[in-house]
Design brief:
D-Maltodextrin-Binding Protein, domain 2, 10-stranded mixed beta sheet, 12 helices, 21% strand
Length: 345
């Protein structure tokens, strides 16, 4: 009987011991002032919805907080829902974030949204793609050419298109034919068959769509020099330079600089600082797990804190200072951004 009781106690205790050792929380018990659940805004079926789902699983596992992926129509609705308090976190494109943070553009009707960054997304190149022999060696050479200039529904690409043309002194009417595409396969097939001269598409490098074209055709991506990049930045302050390493594609042996941008992961300013600190720390402490939720997650980097154009949540700032990627320059930028909207966090 005594042996039976001992065996029963051991059998009962093992699952609790496994749970205890497998995923320790940042504190023995979830602080009472933390939310029991947070909603994470993202479009359904997108890369970001998959990442939001992964973040939610990690929050429940490590912080005892339910992270709930929530469908929105895009960055603007996400920012508006954070503003109204109906959403806690979400993915926002830089153009939307820039206006929402300042209460400008489409946000003049509601004023500055109380959004704060806690995680910077991977950078995306804005690529002008063509083939050797197309006669396109600069944005200025798009005059009289035909191609795809943006994916359908991408407001970011529309802004980049207009700013880039302007930087090179090209008018939209100078381009013979500028179309929209739904999938990358459309422009890849059209370029392979000689139906278009160029395409504009965003993405990271290396990636399959570029590989597919470069493996069979003399693909090239057009370089954007510093002088023209500064002109683009004059219209779109959230743009930054990013270089494609030479040799990634067999047809492109030399480095190529492009204009680039990055989506940011935001949260409500009012979320507890120690909670946002814990979420930020969770992502980077368990980054190997985070990377499993989508292939692009491996391109996230804490170093990205150096290029955001609106303020970080103070809880995230505390963590980035702790690991040494946030210094005096970031403090100065943060204070300038807060001064811009007249708020002291």
């Amino acid at each position: 009987m005594k042996k039976l009781l001992t065996r029963t106690m051991i059998t009962t205790l093992i699952p609790f011991l496994v749970l205890l050792l497998a995923g320790p929380l940042y504190s023995a018990e979830r602080p009472k002032h933390w939310p029991k659940a947070v909603s994470i805004g993202s479009g359904t079926g997108t890369t970001y919805y998959a990442i939001a789902g992964g973040m939610g699983k990690m929050m429940e596992k490590y912080l005892d907080v339910a992270g709930i992926p929530t469908k929105t129509s895009g960055g603007e609705e996400t920012a508006r829902l954070i503003h109204s308090g109906d959403l806690d976190m979400g993915f926002i494109t830089p153009d939307v974030g820039y206006d929402a943070y300042r209460g400008a553009g489409n946000f003049k009707d509601i004023g500055p949204a109380p959004i704060r960054v806690f995680l910077q997304d991977f950078p995306l190149h804005y690529n002008l793609v063509t083939l050797e022999g197309s006669g396109i060696n600069s944005w200025a050479d798009l005059r009289g050419k035909s191609g795809y200039y943006r994916s359908r529904g991408s407001s970011v690409m529309e802004l980049l298109w207009n700013a880039s043309l302007s930087a090179y002194g090209v008018k939209r009417g100078d381009v013979k034919n500028a179309m929209r595409f739904d999938r990358a396969s459309e422009w890849i097939d059209a370029m392979k068959t000689g139906k278009i001269d160029f395409t504009l598409d965003c993405g990271f490098h290396p990636a399959g769509k570029w590989m597919e074209l470069a493996n069979t055709h003399p693909m090239k991506i057009i370089h954007v020099d510093d002088a023209h990049l500064k002109k683009i930045q004059g219209q779109l302050p959230w743009v930054f330079p990013l270089t494609i390493r030479g040799g990634i594609y067999k047809t492109m042996p030399d480095p190529v600089q492009t204009a680039a941008f990055a989506v940011v992961v935001d949260c409500r300013r009012g979320l507890p600082a120690d909670f946002v600190y814990a979420v930020t720390k969770m992502i980077w402490t368990h980054f190997d797990e985070f990377k499993t939720y989508h292939p692009v997650c491996k391109f996230f980097s804490p170093e990205a804190v150096k290029r955001t154009n609106f303020a970080f949540h103070k809880g995230a700032v505390e963590y980035y200072k702790e690991i040494g990627v946030w210094g005096p320059q970031e403090d100065k930028r943060q204070q300038g951004l807060l001064n811009e909207i007249g708020v002291a966090d």
